[in-house]
Automatic annotation (TrEMBL):
Coiled-coil ranges per UniProt: none
Protein's name according to its UniProt entry: DNA-directed RNA polymerase III subunit RPC6
Family affiliation: Belongs to the eukaryotic RPC34/RPC39 RNA polymerase subunit family.
Location of the protein in the cell: Nucleus
Alphabetical UniProt keywords: DNA-directed RNA polymerase, Nucleus, Transcription
PANTHER family (UniProt xref): RNA POLYMERASE III DNA DIRECTED , 39KD SUBUNIT-RELATED
Organism: Owenia fusiformis
A biological-process GO annotation: transcription by RNA polymerase III
Transmembrane segments: none
Length: 308
């Protein structure tokens, strides 16, 4: 009778090779329960010894997926910078690395690593001292810090982008950009009006792309940070909401292009339209005691301060 391979005793090296093979074959990793099922002819001691040896040799990683611990094949580049660190330090480093430039909160690090707060704090201080990670304040919460790799530039959702400095909204900077963008479009409109061409051509000449406006703002040198086209389009959108600018989209050979043009007020608006209520998109939901209320409307207060 032939001997079943599953019933043959396995050496420690064979157990290691089998565990490594299973980890390589699973993108999501292998749980301890799966190891017991897939390698039934080894004792718990053999399994633990083989797993610990693979962890010590840096061939696999211990991660947390939901409520379960899983073993994954180690990325050769993922923790090579954590020299001299123990397995817990390498685990925390990898968790932070996986969060990318959006970072990760300490509570989530604790949950994924299954470590105590004191252990996580100690590891984070060690990694920070080695300049492998950094703590970044998030605009989402003044007291909240997220951790990310030291060489990464934080995502806009963390820093707030160009409109924030040390978590404070730069209202004055935004106002200046608003004025300069409108000034550029006004000048474009005036130049187009002086052209000796038909009305349709004059209107087309008054349009400018968001890239044109971005270059203009960049050449002015009024921003300490480099503004992207998306940043300028955000400013242009505020001008559209204010009724100062209109925009259209033109199809091109490579896709679409956004065009913007300053608007001239042909007639004086009525008294109602000059009040915030006249252009308020949630006017019908406005009532005393509601989420939108006349007594708490900041736009109404500003309008009253200016006119009375």
């Amino acid at each position: 009778m032939a001997t079943n391979i599953k019933d043959e005793p396995m050496e420690v090296e064979q157990v290691e090779a089998r565990i490594l093979e299973l980890c390589l074959g699973s993108v999501k990793g292998v749980t301890d329960q799966q190891l017991q099922t897939l390698i039934p002819n080894i004792s718990p001691t053999q399994r633990v010894t083989a797993v610990n040896k693979l962890l010590q040799n840096g061939k696999i990683d211990l991660m947390k997926s939901g409520s379960q611990l899983v073993y994954k094949v180690k990325d050769p580049d993922s923790t090579s910078k954590v020299k001299g660190g123990d397995n817990q330090e390498k685990l925390v480093y990898q968790i932070i690395e996986e969060s990318g430039n959006k970072g990760i909160w300490i509570r989530d690090i604790r949950w994924k690593s299954n470590l105590l707060l004191t252990q996580v704090n100690k590891i984070l201080k060690s990694l920070e001292s080695k300049k492998l990670i950094k703590a970044v304040k998030s605009v989402a919460a003044s007291k909240k810090k997220v951790y990310m790799l030291f060489n990464l530039e934080p995502d806009r959702s963390v820093t707030g982008g160009a409109w924030y400095s040390d978590q404070d909204f730069e209202a004055e900077f935004v106002d200046i950009l608003n004025q300069q963008c409108f000034k550029f479009l006004e000048q474009r409109l005036e130049l187009a009006a002086d052209m000796n061409v038909d009305p349709a051509a004059r209107m087309n000449k008054a349009y400018a792309t968001s890239l044109d406006i971005t270059k203009y703002i960049s050449e002015l040198g009024i921003s300490k940070v480099e503004l992207s086209v998306e940043d300028i389009e955000t400013i242009l959108n505020t001008l559209i909401y204010d009724g100062k600018v209109e925009h259209t989209i033109m199809a091109t050979a490579t896709g679409q292009k956004k065009l913007y043009r300053a608007m001239r007020q042909i007639t004086q608006s009525t008294g109602l339209m000059r009040t915030p209520c006249g252009v308020c998109p949630v006017f019908k939901d406005c009532k005393e005691g509601g989420i939108v209320s006349p007594s708490t409307c900041v736009y109404m207060k500003d309008w009253l301060d200016i006119n009375f």
